[in-house]
């Protein structure tokens, strides 16, 4: 039989731990700070452990408090989401996806029409905040680039993040080998300063350094490349559609792993929700589909072995 201890006290503790004060918890729960303090104190007595250290003008959680709160918050989030799902009108089905702005523009939005064909009743809402944005409490799921280690989240791999230079066709015609690259023409992305050195080292052109225009996002650099401003370091899957359409070409076949992957991230309770389950099935299938038609052959780096390079200017 399930044994639940003093739910009001648990709610009071979780709200105080999350807000950092009894007053903040009281405002959220519509009770006084003193009432929250009493409920938390009773909870501590029933548990037999201290959850807070009471200090002047602030609360400090004990190790037991931190452990308790880290488990409780996802449970309350799941309960709130389940309640919203059960009480929402049957006609309202909302899926909120957190992605970076470039991923949204370069991959997600062009494919949403396909998802809508499969699930016309689901209202997809995209929120963007960049690669460093924390996972939002109101997100159904997110798509993030990294190593797959996000505490409290399930991370399922979608794509490898491979790097290869791309440019407009007229510029590609001037590039016969990596040694033809010149620093001032190599477009940069501010938060990915390691991309060009990584690729250039693999190509055996360490004497060249990227000194072209710097942009905040990959999407900006790729658009500049489409417009002929220079050569951008492309990252998959951002470049696949442009390569397929011929807006960009890859002058060289060398493709270098960035050392990270793209992941679908979500809280474990989402797997029980039909709308998220439908989206998860769709995106895993979409990610597994062949990338841009006519992409260059992929050659990974191998320690101690010189990489073979092929001219691919006609793509």
From TrEMBL:
Q: Where do the segments described as Disordered lie?
A: 293-315
InterPro entries in the record, alphabetically?
Answer: LysR-type_TF_proteobact-type (IPR058163), LysR_HTH_N (IPR000847), LysR_subst-bd (IPR005119), WH-like_DNA-bd_sf (IPR036388), WH_DNA-bd_sf (IPR036390)
CDD domains linked: PBP2_GcdR_TrpI_HvrB_AmpR_like
Q: The organism sits in which domain of life?
A: Bacteria
Matching entries from SUPFAM superfamilies are given as:
Periplasmic binding protein-like II, Winged helix' DNA-binding domain
Gene3D superfamilies per the record?
Periplasmic binding protein-like II, Winged helix-like DNA-binding domain superfamily/Winged helix DNA-binding domain
Bias regions of kind Basic residues — which residues? 295-309
A GO molecular function for this record? DNA-binding transcription factor activity
Presence of the UniProt keyword RNA-binding in the record: no
Alphabetically ordered keywords of this record:
DNA-binding, Transcription, Transcription regulation
> What GO biological process, any one, is recorded here?
DNA-templated transcription
| Listed Pfam families | HTH_1 (PF00126), LysR_substrate (PF03466)
The UniProt record lists the HTH lysR-type domain at 7-62
UniProt entry tagged with the keyword Cytoplasm: no
Into which family does the record put it? Belongs to the LysR transcriptional regulatory family.
Q: Which PANTHER family match?
A: HTH-TYPE TRANSCRIPTIONAL REGULATOR, HTH-TYPE TRANSCRIPTIONAL REGULATOR TRPI
Q: What does this protein do?
A: NodD regulates the expression of the nodABCFE genes which encode other nodulation proteins. NodD is also a negative regulator of its own expression. Binds flavonoids as inducers.
The protein depicted here goes by the name DNA-binding transcriptional regulator, LysR family
Q: Which species is this record about?
A: Bradyrhizobium lablabi
Write the lineage as a comma-separated list: Bacteria, Pseudomonadati, Pseudomonadota, Alphaproteobacteria, Hyphomicrobiales
